[in-house]
Design brief:
Length: 455
């Protein structure tokens, strides 16, 4: 840790505690060591040689969601996320792991996520499992009981996988519709996103072209490296960053557009990731300066399309009619106000806290005619998904999720929107756990907007 941690960053923390209320693990436990200030103090104690990075130290680092809600509220601008990555990197280098854990990590981080063709094959196998009747059999026979409850829950809300990604469906170039293009947007398709949410990727491209962008999807791009960086595999993350920079640089793009907050947050930090590499530092900065979230680029640089809640209008009519019928016995029909589709939004932590994009998704939603947006209390607090945190720390993840769903229920929303695939799955899980499925659904904001494009 003496080698990997930035001592300047560690000593930037002035121990004011302003970050404590923003931290979900502190909110849940009330324990100093489970707070940003406490974790920074632990890191410094190890670097100063005051304590060993023992099991209890590692437990607190593992319990951290990496949501980085502690950063925007910090008056000293401490880059906690970097300290956490550096700590995990140091731990990973010295962690004695069983051979099968090492093999599993190697396969996932080196042989799977960075290899889009293999990811697509996995998508094909998953699609076969989901559509061939195997899934039904596995569920009925109780075979899934072999897996831990957290994995069983995830299996139950997994969307339909596909072996056909966005390039297979649309090609690598899609021109802007109408008028002079607003720029050339390079779409970052993601590794998991392109297998489990390929339709959202397709809708992202279509939304961007409607907003006036020529879209290019370089086929040589790969995984952003976020899962690697957050799991202490920094060298691999750097390699992936270099491949992505090459791919988008060769494509000559003006912007690099992400529709997943988790990916976008690492893409926008490629400058930091490669800062010590003389050959790549400048290219990292070139890349990072061009990264935008899809909502942000449409609001800032695009021609904002017209959106209308056609489905909502009929639902509104339906609800209004039902309401009028019920009210007919006691009051004139004109007295029953139509009830618009209610929409709420859960921020992606990395989109909000690292990319600092919070207003653009809300501004876009407010453009949709026929909906009512209701702000979710605690929308800026992590949902407990945090990459693979919900699988590694199921107890804390579930605790955080269940508290969040109480606020979600209070909104009365029909749609719970979000901007990141991990958050979306977690919200689907939350809806199921809270038994809210009959009155609301969780949807990616891009899919929601695309469905409401006035065509
Ligand atoms: S808000 Fe910043 S300076 Fe204050 S304790 Fe937290 S990390 Fe340290
Ligand atoms: S990253 Fe999130 S969970 Fe970790 S210390 Fe900061 S606020 Fe707390």
């Amino acid at each position: 840790m003496k080698l990997t941690l930035s001592y300047d960053e560690l000593t930037n923390c002035m121990r004011c505690g302003f970050c404590q209320p923003a931290c979900p693990t502190f909110q849940e436990t009330g324990i100093e060591a489970a707070s940003p200030r406490g974790r920074i103090a632990l890191m410094k104690a190890v670097v100063d040689g005051m304590m060993d990075p023992d099991e209890s130290f590692q437990a607190q680092m593992d319990l951290c969601l990496g949501c980085r809600a502690c950063e925007p509220v910090c008056p000293a601008d401490v880059q906690y996320g970097h300290l956490l990555e550096q700590t995990r990197d140091a731990i990973e280098r010295h962690e004695p792991r069983r051979w099968w854990v090492r093999a599993l990590r190697r396969t996932a981080f080196r042989q799977l996520f960075p290899q889009q063709r293999r990811m697509r094959k996995v998508g094909g196998v998953l699609a076969f499992y989901q559509r061939s009747g195997l899934r039904r059999f596995a569920r009925k026979s109780g075979a899934l009981r072999m897996f831990p409850p957290s994995m069983r829950e995830m299996e139950s809300i997994l969307p339909d996988a596909s072996s056909q990604g966005v390039v297979e469906r649309l090609g690598t170039h899609v021109p802007a519709t109408g008028g002079r293009p607003a720029g050339k947007a390079g779409m970052f398709r993601g590794c998991i996103m392109d297998v489990l949410f390929a339709e959202t990727n397709v809708n992202t491209v279509k939304l961007l072209t409607e907003a006036g962008f020529d879209v290019v999807i370089p086929d040589t791009q790969n995984c952003c490296g976020a899962l690697h960086a957050h799991s202490g595999e920094m060298e691999q993350a750097k390699e992936l960053a270099k491949r992505n920079i090459r791919a988008f640089r060769d494509a000559g793009v003006d912007y690099i557009v992400s529709n997943a907050g988790g990916c976008g947050a690492l893409l926008i930090e490629y400058d930091h990731l490669l800062r010590d590499d003389p050959e790549w530092a400048e290219l990292g900065a070139w890349f990072a300066a061009r990264v935008k979230d899809v909502s942000q680029i449409i609001m800032e640089k695009g021609r904002i399309p017209k959106f209308a809640d056609a489905a909502g209008e009929s639902a509104v009519e339906g609800r209004a009619a039902a309401s009028n019928e019920a009210a007919a016995a006691t009051a004139p029909p004109a007295a029953a106000p139509p009830s618009p589709t209610i929409v709420t939004y859960q921020d992606s932590c990395h989109l909000r806290n690292v990319m600092r994009v919070g207003n653009a998704p809300r501004d876009l939603m407010s453009r949709v005619e026929g909906i009512r947006f209701v702000e979710l209390a605690g929308a800026d607090t992590c949902c407990g998904s945090a990459g693979i945190y919900n699988l590694l720390q199921p107890q804390m993840s579930t605790q955080i999720l269940d508290h969040k769903m109480e606020h979600v229920a209070d909104t009365g929303a029909h749609y719970l929107l979000t901007s990141n695939p991990g958050c979306l799955l977690q919200m689907k899980l939350g809806i199921e756990r809270a038994k809210l499925g009959e009155r609301m659904q969780a949807v990616h904001i891009v899919d929601f907007l695309y469905d409401r494009l006035s065509k």
